[in-house]
Amino acid sequence: MSVLRVEDADAGVRTLTLDRPDALNALDRELKEVLLAALRSAARDRAVRAVVLTGAGRAFCAGQDLRERGETAPSLAIELRERYIPIIEAVGRLEKPVVAAVNGVAAGAGFSLALACDLRVMAETATFISAFGRIGLVPDSGLSWFLPRVVGPARAAEIVMTTDPVDAATAERLGLVNRVVPAEACLAEAQALAARLAAGAPLALGLAKRSLAYALEHDLSASLAFEAELQGIAGRSADHAEGIAAFTEKRSARFTGE
Questions:
Q1: Is the torsion defined by CA of 93, 25, 123, 185 positive or negative?
Q2: Which of 1, 132, 232, 257 is the most buried (most CB within 10 A)?
Q3: Which domains does the chain have, with CATH numbers?
Q4: What are the residues whose beta carbons fall under 8 Å from the beta carbon of 23, sequence distance 6 or more?
């Protein structure tokens, strides 16, 4: 039985469900490998316009499956370089919106994985936990990069160092998630948001994602120049022409990604 469910909707939304509910969707080697493959497949598939990432059962993802960490396991540095980093980078490089449906606990690398997504819908019963300190480790899989950029350095230090759970209401207040919804509505809400994004101009959304990532690492002058470069690409697209035509004709645009 697969540890990852892949389901497509007519709206161009692909849902990836981590499917190890008995292990709280902890990341073992198989799940890491198939998740990376699925993200790369979604990037190549033009029919996919948005991706939803969620977990089966009562957890989003509990992070690394500690039962794998035996004496014969590779060092954590190797495991990160070979398996975790490619997953986080694949989410970031996927020039399509990625929406996390945080249906339950997201701990350790599962917290990192949720933060790597572009948007997050969180169940009101879910929690984030930076669990690394509880087992004598430091944040990884991008948590030390994402967290202070979202909540600021002092809040990030508190979340990481105390390892206290962050409940949904606090996560929303801190800006960790876009919206909090009843648990039973979490996936549907995330899929509806993804469908709305999938109806947009695919090229423009992908370039916007690239622009936002660039701006995090560059000053205003460089970001202005990069915006102009990307706008030149978008302005030559068939989708831009379609958008202008739709506006003029007072109808909904039909974007194709061209």
A1: positive
A2: 132
A3: 4-198 (3.90.226.10), 202-249 (1.10.12.10)
A4: 62, 65, 67
